Amino acid sequence: MNHAAAVIVTYNSEEVIGECLDSCLAAAGIDEIVVVDNASTDGTCTEVRRRKRVTLLINPENQGFAAAVNRGVRATQAGYILLLNPDAVLLCGIPEMIDACRTAAAAGGKLICADGAPQTGFAVRRLPTPMALAFEVLGINRIWPSNPVNRRYRRLDCNLDTPCDVEQPAGAFLMFRRSAWEAVGGFDEEFFPLWFEDVDFCKRLHDRGLPIRYVPQAIARHQGGHSIRKLQWESRALYWYANLLKYAGMHFSPAGKTLVCFATAVGVTLRTPLALVSGPRFRVFVVVGRLWRLAWRLLWSQRLDGPRRDSAVSGEES
Question: 123 with 96: CB under 8 angstroms?
Fold first, then answer.
């Protein structure tokens, strides 16, 4: 129970999983590696099988990121779990993350780009507020990234060389104590297939008063967006907005939820002309209509179910 296991969720990750696994096999402090594959159609599983001492679990269909993480955690008895994206390569610092998790519920490390630059604004963030998500969906953060709301949310003034308590490390490189995962009931599998499940996990840890540490000695090189780039525009839009609304319904006050719903409706509308350039007109209007209905439904309900796992992939709304 005192050893650490890496849990890696893959989906068509053949291009990157090999280097990720090799770095885990060479890393001090990692005693076990579990890969959970969400029904890849490329050579991901073949690439994984080339490495010894790696446990491969294959889902017959895409179960979503949260469900795959939970399956991976249940497959090991390790006391410490390193959640790692397949496009991340461990460089150093796993023992330091383990030490941090002896007293904290979870710990994040420093993520860097291929050129060594830190991924400021991504590696560590504060938990989103209604205003932060409103600025996000309205595109204000993209047009004016240095605005005060975005600077606070993305911790743009954070010194990534200094250890500190944090609210939301990136799920791409996150270690947590098994007991903390059990205390909050694991990752919420209603966030399907991806986005906001790691934010929700950190929020539930925070609400229980369980501390999360940032450990700058732990470093991983991170490509970012590997699987997301393979999704069509309508899938990305439906998954991201629906799970954002789901998070708002779970964690915000009625006033905050209302702000996010109205901002989402306006933001989706503002993005429609650009979407029409890159996608079929009929599909764009269908997705925009569904997102409008999701925002409207959340206004009149306590929380939002969003796209279900049996319908999201096909684009049908529950």
Answer: no
C-alpha to C-alpha distance for 247 and 238, rounded to whole angstroms: 14
Read out DSSP for 123-152? SEEPPPPHHHHHHHHTTHHHHSTTSHHHHH
In this structure, are 21 and 99 located in the same domain? Answer: yes
Helix (H) or strand (E) holding 229: none
Residues 8 and 70 in one domain: yes
Lookup: tokens for 285: 């209007």
Q: Which amino acid is at 228?
A: I
Tell me which residue range forms the domain holding 314: 130-156+231-318
Q: Are 44 and 12 in contact (CB under 8 A)?
A: yes
pTM equals 0.92
DSSP strand pairing (168-169 vs 124-125): antiparallel
Q: 110: part of which helix (H) or strand (E)?
A: strand 106-112
Q: Which of 222, 240, 258 is the last residue of a domain?
A: 222
Tokens read off for 222 = 């991170």
pLDDT band at residue 96 under the 50/70/90 scheme:
very high
Please report, as a single letter, which amino acid is at residue 163: P
Share of the chain above pLDDT 70, in %: 92
174 and 312 together in one domain: no
> What is residue 267's three-state secondary structure?
helix
Burial class (CB in 10 A: 0-12, 13-18, 19+), 209: exposed
User: What DSSP state is assigned to residue 193?
Assistant: S
> Are the beta carbons of 257 and 298 closer than 8 angstroms?
yes
Write out the DSSP string of 33-100. EEEEEE--SSSHHHHHHTSTTEEEEEESS---HHHHHHHHHHT---SEEEEE-TTEEEEE-HHHHHHH
- Looking at 222, 248, 268, the residue that finishes a domain is 222
Q: Give phi and psi for 212, each to the nearest 5.
A: -125, 135
The two tokens of residue 43 are 């050579």
For residues 170 and 108, the answer to whether their CB atoms sit within 8 Å is: yes
